Fold each of these.
Amino acid sequence: MKLKKVLIGILNGAFLLGGTYLLAQQFPKECVIDIGGKMAPVKFLHAKHVTEYKVSCKTCHHKTKDLTKGVQKCSECHGLKEGKEGAPRAMLAFHKNCVNCHKKVNAEQQKNAPTKCNECHKKES
Ligand code: HEC
Ligand code: HEC
Ligand code: HEC
Ligand code: HEC
């Protein structure tokens, strides 16, 4: 019985630690990604990608070393016309990140993630 209590104690501790770790990493619930250009801005459910789709921060914020200190915008390096220091320009970077994963999960996990232009670049109605 004692061992069981200790184990539960350890488990709770782990959950608490996990919780604080997530809390320490502040991130927006959702954002509108708009780098200028001719396409409509893209609404992005940030929190859902983290908690529900379980995408790790580093998959997207791939140049951020300490996530508790905030992140740089993708567009700081991936500019509309060209990228900084060997970074691909924004359209290529976003499409490689967003669209490629969507194609992958649709093919491998029978998901229905958006892959058509107007499913992401939605004109405001
Ligand atoms: C699927 C990709 C993806 C994942 C996963 C992700 N992010 Fe983001 N995050 C973005 C994008 C895109 C933006 C919009 C900022 C931009 O336009 O560059 C953003 C914005 C942010 C911002 C606000 C930046 C600003 O200045 O407006 C913070 C802070 C942040 N993310 C932290 C995190 C943390 C911490 C995690 C993990 C718990 C995480 N993100 C997971 C893609 C992602
Ligand atoms: C500090 C600058 C910087 C920031 C901020 C940054 N990137 Fe990058 N990114 C780069 C560079 C440089 C490369 C070229 C390859 C490399 O060095 O990793 C790159 C490459 C990429 C690639 C191509 C990777 C490959 O395998 O071809 C993708 C996709 C990408 N970035 C997406 C993003 C997204 C999405 C964000 C924002 C959530 C972001 N990047 C933020 C600098 C940055
Ligand atoms: C590593 C995988 C991965 C990456 C990277 C990713 N997504 Fe997703 N996305 C998903 C999954 C999984 C779903 C859910 C599909 C389903 O439930 O059928 C999804 C769903 C969506 C949806 C529709 C439902 C919702 O939650 O809003 C939008 C819009 C979306 N993603 C936008 C983006 C954008 C924009 C980016 C890049 C900044 C991005 N995603 C990057 C995996 C990813
Ligand atoms: C999974 C979501 C997603 C899909 C699908 C998608 N894009 Fe994008 N695209 C983005 C994101 C995010 C950006 C960066 C934010 C912005 O400015 O729209 C972007 C940027 C762009 C840009 C550069 C910025 C601009 O406004 O000129 C062009 C051009 C573009 N996309 C065209 C397309 C076309 C054409 C298609 C269909 C073949 C498409 N996209 C499909 C997410 C997507």
Amino acid sequence: MKLYKDYSLLAHNTFGMDVKAALFFEYETVDELRAFLLSDEFDKCRSHFIHIGSGSNLLFAGDYSGLVMHSVNCELTVVEDTPEYQLLRVGSGYVWDDFVAYCVEHQLAGVENLSAIPGEVGASAVQNIGAYGVEVCDVIERVETVDLMGNVRVFDKAACRYGYRDSVFKNELKGQYIVTHVVYRLMKSPTFKLDYGDLRARVEAEGVPTLQAVRGAVTAIRDSKLPNPKELGNAGSFFTNPVIERKQYEALLADNPTMPSYSIDDDHVKVPAGWLIEHVGWKGQALGHAAVHDRQALVLVNKGGATGAEVMALAQRISEDIYQKFGIRIVPEVNYIV
Ligand SMILES: Cc1cc2nc3c(=O)[nH]c(=O)nc-3n(C[C@H](O)[C@H](O)[C@H](O)COP(=O)(O)OP(=O)(O)OC[C@H]3O[C@@H](n4cnc5c(N)ncnc54)[C@H](O)[C@@H]3O)c2cc1C
């Protein structure tokens, strides 16, 4: 267990913000975490703390005057093994993509489409990460947590209330539980999901689909489309895709015949936020040291030396312009930390 004062968060956020935490606590075991939650040190910070993963979905407004907590628990154990599936219990600090690599290597199916998503296992269950037609909730069996008094609580999948990039941990129970382990159900016979973009063509070009081929194709597509945070600070998709009333969409189509949409239900459609950003002219444009990526309009980047406030100001300008032009409100997917 480690406790630091005035600790640099530069290595703990993919936006590359050079900010500090007044207090930083890092732990390996659930017992260490529970002991800390019962300490005077934590009591002083109870009203101003955040638990982070690798900071790939965070935007720090500036130095953080509270407590930042982080798990480096990288346990991985098989808790059930049947002819059809394995249940794997994984510590919250395990790097997500290393976990995907483990599954693919052991011929365990279900997470291969989620290859190369930054972050750690704990956040995967908070964020309900998704890509290429798969969401992590498809394979989550249960989520182990502790509350702020150190009591253990296990959430089955239904109790996590998963939705698009959403869970109970982001809403009703935000900040009340710390994810310590996630139990995933991985299948021994794969059901490939390839009907997304050009994934099928890429995978089938290699021959009969395999988990390795899917992982390789997903990683290659992502590398070609998304800026690498090690080279250009970013947090992936900055905004969620807005869901609007079908009537509003049909009215907008008259002036914007190329506006894409995905049907949600009889009355609602989802509109790609990247298309909206591009069509208000922000793609590739900068405001101070923050910019909209020139190939992927949904990604805001730190050109070097940007502050969180600059990125937030850019996001605000984009949202206002979209509202002015289309009457649609877009909201950040990235968590603002103030
Ligand atoms: C280049 C790039 C591409 C991306 N692509 C995708 C994508 O395809 N699909 C996708 O879904 N996301 C994507 N993301 C977003 C990001 O990778 C995910 O949201 C990821 O799950 C964040 O993990 P993290 O460990 O970095 O969490 P952080 O960003 O550190 O935290 C995210 C949230 O989870 C909470 N949290 C973290 N750990 C815990 C814990 N143990 N207990 C309780 N709460 C916790 C934090 O408080 C915060 O609210 C991308 C990001 C980048 C930079």
